[in-house]
């Protein structure tokens, strides 16, 4: 009977983790499609990204419900409890990435009615691709319980910070050169900031993986590029 209960718990836990992996794939696609819609001024794709966010939200709800049920009914041991709790935290980080992708899509539709800022959307897309790779590797490190890959993702966040700082300076230059650039550059700045935050969330996922494998959160301060602005946004 005890072995049967353990097997049932393992199956349930694997099912929840499979949902996390599925959610990760959806969120990665959301980020790349949002950046592509911005660069190509594709209003239909931007609207599709906005609508697909509901599927990401629904998955997070299912994951939280299943993880809570597992904890309540199975009374897992310490190591299994870490897995169940990490599932909830990782799903929360992925949901936030989905929200930021939706925000990018919404701002992209606004920007389509304005003159393009030369080269900016391509740079944002490259930043998005870098961040998506971090997300993918963070999820892979979770699947494989790969502490080294998780630590590598954590270290790479500085690249996204540097891209954001460079874009901020570029937008500031455009705004100083021509006041008509202020509104589109502000929207582009917020989009870049959203992507920078996604990098932070990928880092948070990798730190959960390190906790899952070692039982301890990283105790060193991860490398961060000094931000050129304290201007922030909380929208979702």
According to DSSP, the number of beta strands is 0
- State the order of secondary-structure elements, H for helix, E for strand: HHHHHH
* Count of alpha and pi helical runs: 6
- Seen as an oligomer or otherwise, the chain set is single chain
Give the fraction of residues assigned to helices: over 70%
What does the main sheet amount to? none
Form type: globular
Structural overview:
The protein starts with a helix and ends in a 22-residue tail after the last helix. It is an all-alpha fold and 236 residues long. The protein has helices at 2-40, 43-74, 78-111, 120-144, 147-177, 182-214. 82% of the residues lie in helices and 0% in strands.
Labels describing this entry:
single chain, 236 residues, mainly alpha, globular
Task: Please write out the topology.
Layout: H1 2-40, H2 43-74, H3 78-111, H4 120-144, H5 147-177, H6 182-214
């Amino acid at each position: 009977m005890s072995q049967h209960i353990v097997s049932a718990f393992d199956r349930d836990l694997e099912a929840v983790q499979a949902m996390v992996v599925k959610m990760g794939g959806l969120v990665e696609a959301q980020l790349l499609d949002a950046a592509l819609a911005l660069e190509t001024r594709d209003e239909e794709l931007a609207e599709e990204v906005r609508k697909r966010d509901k599927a990401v939200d629904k998955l997070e709800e299912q994951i939280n419900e299943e993880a809570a049920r597992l904890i309540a009914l199975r009374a897992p041991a310490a190591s299994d409890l870490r897995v169940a709790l990490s599932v909830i935290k990782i799903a929360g980080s992925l949901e936030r990435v989905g929200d930021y992708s939706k925000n990018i899509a919404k701002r992209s539709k606004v920007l389509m009615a304005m003159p393009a800022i030369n080269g900016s959307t391509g740079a944002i897309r490259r930043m998005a691709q870098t961040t998506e790779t971090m997300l993918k590797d963070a999820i892979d490190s979770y699947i494989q319980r790969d502490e080294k890959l998780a630590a590598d993702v954590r270290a790479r966040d500085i690249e996204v910070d540097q891209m954001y700082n460079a874009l901020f300076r570029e937008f500031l230059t455009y705004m100083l050169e021509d006041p008509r650039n202020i509104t589109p550059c502000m929207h582009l700045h917020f989009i870049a900031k959203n992507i920078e935050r996604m990098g932070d969330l990928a880092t948070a996922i990798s730190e959960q993986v390190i906790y899952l494998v070692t039982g301890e959160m990283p105790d060193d301060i991860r490398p961060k590029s000094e931000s050129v602005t304290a201007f922030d946004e909380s929208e979702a």
